[in-house]
Sequence to fold (95 residues):
Amino acid sequence: MTIQILDGEGLIDKNELDFFLKGNTNLEDVEEPIPESWIPISGWKDLQTIVNVNDVFKNLISDLKENLPLFKAWYDNEKPENEELPLQYNKITTF
Fold:
């Protein structure tokens, strides 16, 4: 019901919602190798999908690769969900 209300008010991006609910549902392995061992395969597969969700994420993979120590520091936080995301990704919607 909440999603329907937010959608009716134009506050939900349907592509973001779809990704949030499903993630990467492709059963195929991704071709691009994981750049670091600390990145889980499921997360890497999701990154391959989220870059197409909207323009905010289109450079996420290249930004991650170019700033691995920065993203690793965020990843290693005890509660990364309470920390600002690296780079410009701290300006995305809370959804």
